[in-house]
Amino acid sequence: MPANPERTLLCGGLEISRLVCGLWQVADMEKNGQPLDPVRAADALEDYAKAGFDTFDMADHYGSAELITGRLLQRYAGANKRPVAFTKWCPEPDSMTAEVVRKGITERLERLGVSKVDLLQFHWWTFEHPAWLDALHEMAALRKEGLIASIGVTNFDAAHLALALADGIPIVSNQVSFSLIDRRAAGALSELCRLKNVTLLAYGTLCGGFLSEKWLGKPEPTEIRDWSRSKYKRFIDAAGGWQAFQCVLAAADRVARKHKVSIANVATRWVLDHEAVAACIIGARLGESEHRVDNLKVFSFALDAEDRALLADSFAGTKPVPGDCGDEYRKPPYLTASGDLSHHLSAIPSIFAGTPVPQRPGRQRVSSGSVWEPIAGYSRAVRVKNVIHVSGTTATHGANHCVAPGDAGAQTTYILDKIAAAIAALGGTMNDVVRTRIYLRDGAKWEPVSRAHGRVFGQVMPANTLIEAGNLIGDYEVEIEAEAIVD
To answer: What is the pLDDT of residues 89-115, one digit of tens each?
Structure first.
């Protein structure tokens, strides 16, 4: 068995352990309002670091995890090498000015006690609020300033990761759920990462501890008090239920007994073997239930063709987890701990607001704030009775920034988010859309546009017209109109 976990390099040269210690459980351990003792907790982290588990992942909402890690990093002041600290910034959707972003990142620096964050990961709660692009561009500026070494994102689907990359954001990693039960990341997201040299950091690899011998052959639990485990029980339910889960667990157990390792080792090895995955994030409970020796066994064996076939056969009895990567935080059924966002966010605000049209009672409209709307006399969208009409929409961000120039598919993703926000402000959803009309600068780019349209409307299937319009104004590749009928 190896003495230390394998290591890898992220794009940009940051060297990390392939088993990252996740500190999300600090928040659970402090849920009674009593912070952990920072010295003793840092001692526990140092034990991990000395055993080669020297890469730690946390977030602004993981209790005192950043402060504890900062206490650990102080012990390495002046050393040639110190543990690596990832953290996340998860602001509530609002205006992301340079001042707001700098304040958020400065707080991370101060809590960690460092001059530069090794990997600053950004999470955004709703892509219908476009300020996420502002935040990432400001983070890129702070990276150039030297406050951030590398930029990552968390819970981004393939379409929005592609959009951010096409708009020039230097993203090196995306942290997403990935396991034998939740295999969403193995598809389009992994392919994009391969093409764009982005790596995945996988969490939820053990499904909150359900992928272990403890649950093999056991009856379905009727009550779960641990918020993390409650979340992953929801994933099991979404993937086909307890019996389907037991089939996967039994297959993993057969593979584990063959290699004389644990089910957890097999589950982790299966995820690590995916080309796009740089590392798996394992829970660290700081003195409780430490499994460093068992975790090292992940690197003592390899899955062969027979093992992979056995696991693949077990997947046949499951259902794909609905939606795309990250949807659990942005779309129903919200596969979070309580089935809503109460553990993370009180509400998701709208970027637009519907306002009455004074001269036409019963009519509402949405304005995007463009200086041209009052000059040229148009609105982003108008609702008349139960019909919502959305104007021709381009990938314009802010006053005059064309998002993802030259990339028709990425622009379509951004446009559809903008349309969704306008419709939501007038009381509808994208499920209410009955017609879309797409104008293309270059008809040869129809396929990425159609695929982006299908990602949103694959189940809704509105009537659609696709037109090659020639020279659209500015650098825009695509313009889209929409019509929705609200029942």
So the answer is: 999 999 999 999 999 999 999 999 999
**Assessment of whether the complete model's pTM goes beyond 0.90:** yes
Question: In sequence order, what are the residues at sequence separation of 6 or more whose Cβ sits closer than 8 angstroms to the Cβ of residue 421?
Answer: 128, 129, 130, 350, 351, 352
Q: For all residues of the chain together, what is the average pLDDT?
A: 93
CA end-to-end distance (rounded Å), the chain: 62
Report how far Cα 221 is from the mean position of its chain's Cα atoms. Answer: 28
3-class secondary structure per residue, the chain: CCCCCCEEECCCCCEEECEEEECCHHHHHCCCCCCCCHHHHHHHHHHHHHCCCCEEECCCCCCCHHHHHHHHHHCCCCCCCCCEEEEEECCCCCCCCHHHHHHHHHHHHHHHCCCCEEEEEECCCCCCCCHHHHHHHHHHHHHHHCCEEEEEEECCCHHHHHHHHHCCCCEEEEEEECCCCCCHHHCHHHHHHHHHCCEEEEECCCHHHCCCHHHCCCCCCCCCCCHHHHHHHHHHHHCCCHHHHHHHHHHHHHHHHHHCCCHHHHHHHHHHCCCCEEEEEEECCCCCCCCHHHHHHHHCCCCCHHHHHHHHHHHCCCCCCCCCCCHHHCCCCCCCCCCCCCCCCCCCCCCCCCEECCCCCCEEEECCCCCHHHHHCCCCEEEECCEEEEEEECCEECCCEECCCCCHHHHHHHHHHHHHHHHHHCCCCHHHEEEEEEEECCHHHHHHHHHHHHHHHCCCCCEEEEEECCCCCCCCCEEEEEEEECC
Q: What is the C-alpha separation between 72 and 440, in angstroms, rounded?
A: 54
Distant-in-sequence, close-in-space partners of 377: CB < 8 Å, separation ≥ 6? none
Domains of the chain in sequence order: 7-329 (3.20.20.100), 355-485 (3.30.1330.40)
The pLDDT of residue 289 is: 54
In Å, the largest CA–CA distance within the chain is 77
Q: Above 70 in pLDDT, residue 446?
A: yes
